[in-house]
Amino acid sequence: MKIAFDVDVLAKQLSISDMVQQVADWGYQYIEQSPHPRINPFYKHPLYSKETEQEYKKALAATGVEISSLIVVYRWSGPDEEQRKMAVANWKKIIEVASSLGVQVINTELSGDPKQQERCNGMWFRSMEELLPLFEREGIRVEIQSHPYDFCELNDETVDMVKSFRSDNLGYVYSAPHGFFYDQGKGDVRHMLEYAGDSLSHVLFADTFNQELDCRYIVNPPWLGPTDAVVHQHLAMGEGDVNFPEIFSTLRDLDFAGKKFKVGGDSIACVSYFGFPDKMQDQAPAARERIEKELLGK
């Protein structure tokens, strides 16, 4: 199992070299490269100039840190066909970037529009029919997560979509801070992880509040519904409502740490804390240490 740190909280304030050095200083061996304005920006075409490549590879070599995975977010489920086509072009380019970095795993979201679920579902399957042969040819493991406000937010349905392709190049991401969306507020983490089963290749660790409970979040105007706006957090474990003891217990029962996949190798446990950069000096190492203790017995 690779334990990675999602560098979103660092990329907004540090150079690439300093970002990599900070991850190394916190004791992590792996970076999960979330959308970065110089590499894989949200929704837009990938960039990644020669200068960026040189800076990144130099920092990795100097620290011994490796990239476990890239995160990309594209509108490959539309709902507009022109958006979908541009997203497919973005995918083709980001696979070139991943190859140049020696990265075999790409973590992504369903995207789309929850108000147009049927249309977006069809668009996503259309994109997958075009892209899956490319993933398979290039030896890339693409891992799917549903995200709050995607056209599908549910754990079991998303798992079924992933498994329907029966491909070693597709995996499932369970994101703990999105889990209350995954089962509409029940928070039955054991069921969700067990349902993912052999497709579970990646877990994101961060805490959040249960948006279904009264006054956990207060949204104004009060008549806004779940297809108008959604809220969640990426807090340190223990600061919200997520049942992490049950998550760790279930992952041990599933031998998540010992999993090896035909494509992309090890499973990935990623610390995905965003909300409080001023607390990261303490929270980031503590999260790594807890995952090591809970899942590796260190």
What would you say this structure looks like, in words?
- The chain has 298 residues and is of the alpha/beta class.
- The protein has one domain (2-296): TIM Barrel.
- The chain has ten helices and ten strands.
- It has helices spanning 8-11, 16-25, 50-63, 81-101, 117-138, 155-163, 179-182, 189-196, 244-253, 280-296, and strands at residues 2-6, 30-33, 66-72, 105-109, 141-145, 170-175, 200-205, 260-261, 265-266, 268-271.
- The strands form two sheets. The chain has an eight-stranded parallel beta barrel with strand order 1-2-3-4-5-6-7-10, surrounded by five helices. The protein has a two-stranded antiparallel ribbon with strand order 8-9.
- Helix 2 packs parallel to helix 3 and helix 4 (81-101) runs parallel beside helix 5.
- The mean pLDDT is 95.
Short descriptors:
two-stranded antiparallel sheet; alpha/beta; 10 helices; 298 residues; TIM Barrel
Average pLDDT for all residues: 95
Number of domains: 1
Q: Structural class from helices and strands?
A: alpha/beta
Q: Report the radius of gyration as a whole number of Å.
A: 18 Å
CA distance, first residue to last residue = 13 Å
Question: Stretches where pLDDT falls below 50 for ≥5 residues?
Answer: none
CATH-defined fold name: TIM Barrel
CATH superfamily: Divalent-metal-dependent TIM barrel enzymes
The level of helicity is 25-40%
Report the β-strand fraction as a percent range. Answer: 15-25%
Pattern of helices and strands: EHHEHEHEHEHEHHEHEEEH
* Strand element count: 10
Query: What is the number of helices?
Result: 10
The CATH architecture name reads Alpha-Beta Barrel
Overall 3D form:
globular
Described by strand count, sense and barrel closure, the largest sheet is: 8 strands, parallel, barrel
Question: What is the level 1 CATH name?
Answer: Alpha Beta
Q: Strand order of the main beta sheet, please?
A: 1-2-3-4-5-6-7-10
